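I am still getting used to backbone structure tokens and would like to learn alongside you. Would you supply a protein for us yourself, any chain you care to pick? Start from the sequence, derive the backbone structure tokens from it, and show both lines together. Go ahead whenever you are ready, and we will take it from there.
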Amino acid sequence: MQILLVNDDGIHAPSLLAIYHELRKWGDVTVVSPASEQSGVGHSITYLHPLLAAKDYRNGEFFGWKVEGRPADCVKLGIHELCKPRPDIVISGLNAGANVGLNVIYSGTVAAAVEAAFFGIPAIALSQWMDGPPNFEETARRAIPLCKKLYERTQPGMLWNVNFPPPRANWPRGVKFVGMECRRSADEIETRVDPRGRTYYWSGLNPLKCHVYDPMTDVQSLTEGNITVTPLQFDLTQQKLLNELRSESWEIPSHE
């Protein structure tokens, strides 16, 4: 099994190291990670200047590639140049923080998995809800058998988004296959004033609390202590409306 491992927290993230050690028990792992944290960058890519990649070493041994770019850049570079042979699967994570609800759209972790799906390669985004001290090693151990099962169920053009609850008594309670919560109850931007009297703003301080808690969605299931698994696709076409419109004949608009 040839595994390409990427993330958005950067190559020095302890969560990356935890999942790396467990993935090595499954197959050959090539790490291609941003040189610095890239959380919340979504599916942005680098094309206005060259991508720089350098080897990263741990205790004198080669660990992986650090890229001056975005998570999606790391996947493109990994597939085309750095991961030989071509990866059988792309694992993105383990992210320090949940990626559920509308935050999936902003997530660099999920974007990396989407990029892999563009290439037809099975991809899984892994995230850890940070509500207290994490245990990345324990989560990584739980993640591998789940990834193996999901790998067998992956279809072309899709990916999996997996979130783990924090370590609490009797958590995780189970594995739930749920949809993505797409309704937001509020969006908070906190206004503050610095010591010089200048106004500044913080956005995204409570990403889970801003969502509606619908049953059988990732937000509610995760907060109930479950591991959430959501199949995603990158085709954003509204198929039902498209099929309706195809049966209609519209006139060319006049240029009045």
